[in-house]
Amino acid sequence: MLKRAIKGLVVMSASLERMHQCFLFQLVPPEWEAAAYPSLKPLASWVTDLVARLDMIAKWLKHGPPPAFWISGFFFPQGFMTGALQVHSRKTKIAVDTLVFRTAVRDFSEDECKEGPENGVYVYGAFLEGARWDRERHVVTEMVPGTLFSYLPVIWLDPLIKSEYNPQSVYRCPFYKTSRRAGTLSTTGHSTNFIVKLDLPSEHDEDHWIRRGVALLSMLDD
């Protein structure tokens, strides 16, 4: 319709004109944003990200569950995580509402992951903002000067009984879909941007990282 409107074959409506302006300035049209997932990427990166998400789902359908899941590629990551708890609940006969995830950052990347864990799931695609992951000491540590984000290795979400889980020396790091760190309450009762808090081992108390605004992001803005 936009092509036809530019040629003068149909009337250029306000929505088509707005879409044309977005294309000129590398912005995602509002009509697309309204039907899609939260994202702050420019148009070209947004399309590349969309194709990657579709490719991830297609491979899952054709070849079965992968050893590690791209958590950033889900429209509703909270639903995937709830599904992982439900699978563990059916396997162990433990009520799903008594389970929580223990977070364990592994020493390998998604490309090196050949098989999934016995319990829970492996996920990847998270970026640390305001801090970095020390692969030698396995803790959250200060960011390298001049670097804004740090890519995390594969994360193991290990289901445990809530009453038996009492982590020590961890930072309960909030995990967001975008760097905007703000969202609205959706019809499911979940935030449209906040996903979950993940416990990351730390040698500092939580206030140290809170003052630095440290958070996990599922995608970058570029």
Give your account of this protein's structure:
This protein has helices spanning 2-7, 14-24, 30-35, 43-63, 77-92, 206-211; strands at residues 69-70, 99-105, 121-124, 127-129, 132-134, 139-141, 149-151, 155-161, 170-176, 194-201, 215-217. It is α+β, with helices and mostly antiparallel strands and 222 residues long. The strands form three sheets. Strands 7-4-11-9-10 form a five-stranded mixed beta sheet, with no helix packed on it. It has a four-stranded mixed beta sheet with strand order 1-3-8-2.
Count every beta strand, where a strand is a DSSP E run of 2 or more residues.
Answer: 11
Please work out how many helical segments DSSP would assign. Answer: 6
**Class by helix and strand content?**
alpha+beta
* Proportion in β-strands: 15-25%
Oligomer state equals single chain
| Element pattern in H and E | HHHHEHEEEEEEEEEHE
Average per-residue pLDDT, rounded, comes to 91
Helix content: 25-40%
Distance between the termini: 29 Å
Largest sheet: 5 strands, mixed
Instruction: Give the overall form.
Output: globular
- Low-pLDDT sequence parts: none
Q: Going across the major beta sheet, what is the strand order? A: 7-4-11-9-10
Radius of gyration: 20 Å
Describe the secondary structure blueprint for this structure:
Elements: H1 2-7, H2 14-24, H3 30-35, H4 43-63, E1 69-70, H5 77-92, E2 99-105, E3 121-124, E4 127-129, E5 132-134, E6 139-141, E7 149-151, E8 155-161, E9 170-176, E10 194-201, H6 206-211, E11 215-217
